[in-house]
Amino acid sequence: MSEQTNFYSQSPGSAEIASRFPDLHPAFDKTAAVTEAHRCLYCFDAPCTAACPTHIDVPRFIKKIASDNLEGSAKTILDANILGASCSRACPVEVLCEGACVMHRYNKQPIEIGRLQRFAMDVLHESGAPLPFSPGKDTGKSVALIGGGPASLACAAELRRRGIRAEIFDARPLPGGLNTYGIAEYKLPLAESLREIDLLSQLGVEFRFNTTVDAAQLAALEASHNAVFLGLGLGAIHRLGIAGEETAGVTNALDYIAGYKSGEITSAPQRVAVIGAGNTAIDAANAAVRLGAREVHMVYRRGPEQMSAFAFEYEHAKQEGVKFLWHVMPIGLKGTDKVEALELVKLETTSDGSLVPKAGEEFSLPVDLIVLAIGQATHTEFLVAEGKASTVKLERGRILIDRATGQTSSPKYFAGGDCTNGGREVVDAVADGKRAGIGIAAWLEGQDANA
Amino acid sequence: MPTLETTFAGIKCLNPFWLASAPPTNCGEQIMRAFDAGWGGAVWKTIGEPITNVSSRYSSIDWNGQKMMGFNNIELISDRPIEVNLREIAEVKRRYPKHVVIASLMVESKRETWHDIVQRAEDAGADGLELNFGCPHGMSERGMGSAVGQVPEYCEQITGWVKEKARTPVIVKLTPNISDIRIPARAAKRGGADALSAINTINSITSIDLDTLEPRPMVDGKSSHGGYCGPAVKPIALNMVQQVMSDPDAALPMSGIGGIGTWQDAAEFILLGSGTVQVCTAAMHYGYRIVEDMADGLQAWMRRKGYETLDDFRGLSLPKVREWKHLNLNYKVVAHIHESKCIGCDLCYTACWDGAHQCIHLDRTLPAPDHTRTPDMVAAESRGRISTTPIPKLDIDGAGVDGPYRTPLSRIPRVDEVECVGCNLCSLVCPVPECITMERIDTGLPPQTWEERVAAGIVPQNAGDAGNPNL
């Protein structure tokens, strides 16, 4: 059976990290939450709900906070989004529910939906109450879920509520994937991710840790389960492709973030360069500042208008004191035993729009640590190995699915999350997983009907 | 500059703002501070044989986060000795001769007792007397307060006793806990009252504690019906003031009471005929300082409207309140949604479908108007749509990342002006000022009332009228 069900107690925890990464958006207390809840206009067919990938009925859960029906509020959230607690902290609400709030056009102050959602979920967690759902009556069916991130967790919850066995396989020692290891600690602490999964495991979700599924194992799981859900996420961060990348002092953003979140990294050297300008790059740069670096540069080959990070993340990084080097490209590393400097060249845009180095504009940035954050590769190759090419179809490494059901081109395989969408947010993965869970249950029912 | 000075039943007033007989006028020290804050007058907390009060005494209704929208008390009249109250009245009048002090009185229903208290109050220097025939709790069980106000004969008789003795104006305070307030008002007038004040508090149970199942305010596990007041009662008070002031057999100088807390409230009571207004709950909530804006705001409004004195607009709205049968049935308005102001909350839409006449639709982006789509169908469409977080590098068009926060056309409702009955509901629920306006439609028909239709034989006299003693 499942290996164990109290992940929260296994949280590595570090007082040092906790003190350096306090909540970016502090929790509401009850008075503040109720006051804010009363501001909500209770829109019909609310735009916030439509904007939420999991379609949480936002006005409904907010009105339940106002009416002091906090159990009902939490249930409303969880019914739509089983990871409502992490999403309340990790979601880029500025471009989702709060971005859609009609208050932008009313008094210019959107309702603080994220903080209200966190309040409702915190109250549930602190009450020690179980999830307000029970497993469905056992159907005798089982699904193997590859990857233990938000997509698989959401899918597993839907399956369990429908009486289908859900067995999650994950390469790491703890569940949650990027939800646990990859989100800036000041947004979603590692321990909070685990606490939420503890609740989920009450539904009878089974976990197999430290297990990397290869093609052979996948074939075995396909044979032993009624369906397979692929929630693989993305793979390793791209390499720069320049000499010296193996030198000590060069790391990547995912390892760096996972390292400090699990307490293995508790300080940063004096000078840090983060290469890339996405949201993950910003998380890494902010982390370096908070871990004590004196000077943190973000290095990007284009300008601020082209950076893929959200505008509010860019603003946050500036406030943290991160410096930006725009229109430059790394061309080399200095340092023998350990990295000492990053060699850069300024870029210019040619008439056809391509970026080319400016002759004679090379310069050197002294650094003690380089963090690469230039996007993740896919790791779906094993799916197409050994004659499986015709079954699960890929496109540029992403698994192709039917968006409504999560079904791949191979009927027994479903998929969701970053491995299908190229890398979006936790909430997108949850929405994918939820649709796939419902899709799998419907497909299995259809199989029975046909049989 | 308009003046707020006025004369009420012969009493000169610096302004029409009086504190009602209640905890804010419990003692001289309070009333002197109130006068310093700008109140023109105060009706002393009702004087009579001292009583014993309970603990606790107040409860309230909060609404959507706003405190004390309605307020309730089970406190009785003054618990201080009569002579202490009278001594302090004399002191206040000595130090504030231009401010109005009214002695509110309540004693047992004996002629000599009333004569005695009237004499003593006037000797102390009161500018007028208010007879408390309205207190709905406690005192009424002892044959006083509303027990008097609810029986027109008692009301007339006691007013008469007081008038035999009184040298200052006598104001009778009316209870609303009666089916037709004009009846006791007429009785007071017959008894010789110089003025009326209305309304006193309304019988109420404000709420029940859902843990203990005890009503509030709780006294050792039990409660008692109390007197309701505060913003929630203003519409009831305005109606009763209008009823009295439109009745020639009842109308007297009126001191309006009930939920007044702003200059707008005061203006409304004066427009329905009040000469002064009395305030309690708002002062208990925010303190005496509220009178500054009541005076300032009322004066500014008078200046904008061109009124020099309170008399210039007193009662101007009375002729505009008519019986329903006198309303023009050929007058028609329809809702108009100003698209540029619409924020897309669609509260008007859901209100019209569930609470009105199903004539607002969300079909502007459909190929053709569709009045058959129900709210459930609209909402189901949104729920069925797959949404994702906008990520610029993944979304080629990059739409929606930073706004622009314009209301999408699909969320701006359309009013079917043919079906719209002009009920106002949408404009009332709309949170945006001036976004939904009610626009007059020319029906091409001359004004016509129900009464005129009946008289013209267009509609039959309602068969149900026969035998109904209320008609």
UniProtKB/TrEMBL annotation, chain A:
The keyword Oxidoreductase applies. Its EC number is 1.4.1.13, 1.4.1.14. The keyword Oxidoreductase applies. It comes from the Bacteria. Coiled coil: none annotated. Residues 30-64 form the 4Fe-4S ferredoxin-type domain. Keywords: Oxidoreductase. Pfam families: Fer4_20 (PF14691), Pyr_redox_2 (PF07992). One of its GO terms (molecular function) is glutamate synthase (NADH) activity. It is an enzyme of class 1 (oxidoreductase). This is Glutamate synthase (NADPH/NADH) small chain. It comes from Granulicella mallensis. The lineage of its organism: Bacteria, Pseudomonadati, Acidobacteriota, Terriglobia, Terriglobales.
From TrEMBL, chain B:
GO terms for molecular function: dihydropyrimidine dehydrogenase (NAD+) activity; iron-sulfur cluster binding; metal ion binding. Keywords: Iron, Iron-sulfur, Metal-binding, Oxidoreductase. PROSITE patterns: 4FE4S_FER_1, 4FE4S_FER_2. Residues 333-362, 411-441 form the 4Fe-4S ferredoxin-type domain. It catalyses: 5,6-dihydrouracil + NAD(+) = uracil + NADH + H(+); 5,6-dihydrothymine + NAD(+) = thymine + NADH + H(+). The keyword Oxidoreductase applies. GO terms for cellular component: cytoplasm. Its EC number is 1.3.1.1. InterPro entries: 4Fe4S_Fe-S-bd, 4Fe4S_Fe_S_CS, Aldolase_TIM, Dihydroorotate_DH_cat. It is an enzyme of class 1 (oxidoreductase). SUPFAM superfamilies: 4Fe-4S ferredoxins, FMN-linked oxidoreductases. Belongs to the dihydropyrimidine dehydrogenase family. Involved in pyrimidine base degradation. Catalyzes physiologically the reduction of uracil to 5,6-dihydrouracil (DHU) by using NADH as a specific cosubstrate. It also catalyzes the reverse reaction and the reduction of thymine to 5,6-dihydrothymine (DHT). PANTHER family: DIHYDROPYRIMIDINE DEHYDROGENASE [NADP(+)] (PTHR43073:SF2). Heterotetramer of 2 PreA and 2 PreT subunits. This is dihydrouracil dehydrogenase (NAD(+)). The lineage of its organism: Bacteria, Pseudomonadati, Acidobacteriota, Terriglobia, Terriglobales.
